[in-house]
Structure formats: structure tokens, C-alpha cells
Amino acid sequence: MPDPRTLRDSTQIVLPCDLLESVRDDLETDFIVSVHRKDGGTCRIIGSPVEIRAVSDFLARQGISLR
Length: 67
Known about the structure:
With 67 residues, the protein is α+β, with helices and mostly antiparallel strands. It has 4 helices and 3 strands, in the order αβααββα. The chain is globular.
């Protein structure tokens, strides 16, 4: 049975919401993902593993580091 953390890592990205301000509309328009705001200014981008990889590449092109 796969480790739940591995599955979670492949289906979500967690970042400070202020990093997403300039690209959030593009994310929700161009990709099949949901962006949810959590307490403390953190946003969770949730989608399929394929979409999360594409979003990760998109964010990197925008200069947003995931690490």
C-alpha cells in the first residue's frame, strides 16, 4: 500500500497565499485545480498528479519557488 504522504505530495502544493496573488486567476483558468485558503495565510492547490506537475512547472516559470 502506498504511503499517504507520497500521494498527498503528488496531488497538492502548499504555499503562502501572497505568492499566488498575481497568478491565482491564471491557475484556476488554465489548470483543473482548486485553490483553498487556509488559516495563517497558507493556500493549498489541489488537483490530479498530472495537473500538479503542470502547475509546478508553471509556478517555476513565474519565479515562484516550491521549496
